[in-house]
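Case 245 in the screening queue. Each case pairs one protein sequence with one candidate compound; here the compound is S-adenosylmethionine. For every case the pipeline is the same: read the inputs, emit a complex structure as tokens, and attach any notable structural observations.

Predict complex for case 245.
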Amino acid sequence: KWVIPGAVQYHGGLALIWHDVIVEWILDTLTQSTRPQRLLAAVHKKATRGNPRSVVKAIDEFCNQNEWAMNVGNEKGSEILDSVVSETNPGCVLELGTYCGYSTVRIASLLPPHAQLITLEFNPDNAAVARQVIAWAGVAEKVRLVEGESGEWIPKMKEQFGVKTFDLVFLDHWKNRYLLDTKLMEECGLLKKGSVLLADNVVCPGAPDYLEYIRNSPQYKSQFFKSHLEYTKAEDGLEKSVFLG
Ligand SMILES: C[S@@+](CC[C@H](N)C(=O)[O-])C[C@H]1O[C@@H](n2cnc3c(N)ncnc32)[C@H](O)[C@@H]1O
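Case 245 output:
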């Protein structure tokens, strides 16, 4: 367990440099393993196979007690993501940025029967861990994990997977892609009146070009939900934007 100075807990930029660069590098070097591999080991040790909420809990415990990881986390997850999924009751969901499958499991466990979640991840090592986390949680039949870049796969969604439109899109990949991929989804006809975009980390690390667009476009009704960067006390939040057609 690491003793973390207050400045790191409350300052998003410092928190990211500390947890996501320095500590990760030190632990990877000392253990000759990767953070996703260590997170997967915690799931296998602590979570009950076939119980998605126990998988979410095991990952949150690992991140609170052992090491930080870039999952949406329990605070934003339970207070915002879960509520938006439940309210929207989506039949077809797109997640941009799977990482280890934490939010994938959260979302999938709340979907109505026959709903489908497509999740995109371009890092093959992360995707390999996510597949195992998703399988352990018992939600694999609802999830299609696609390995590749969002910019390459969004235009293929209709043709390759028979998607008509998405009811809900969770944007949680690299922040400089939020705006580009939103415009791409519009161009590809993947949004319909009432489609909900939910974007994580719009404060930390931040996606200013996306916020400027989504808050000022007459095609969206947008709302900010204040929260904290996962597993810290630094400011962050999610933006929920409804496409008006
Ligand atoms: C913040 S993590 C996702 C966390 C995950 N949604 C969760 O809450 O558990 C971002 C992930 O997006 C992936 N990624 C970044 N840009 C991407 C892109 N353009 N296409 C596909 N995956 C991308 C990264 O490799 C990383 O694993």
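Case 245 observations:
- The longest helix spans residues 12-31.
- The radius of gyration is 17 Å.
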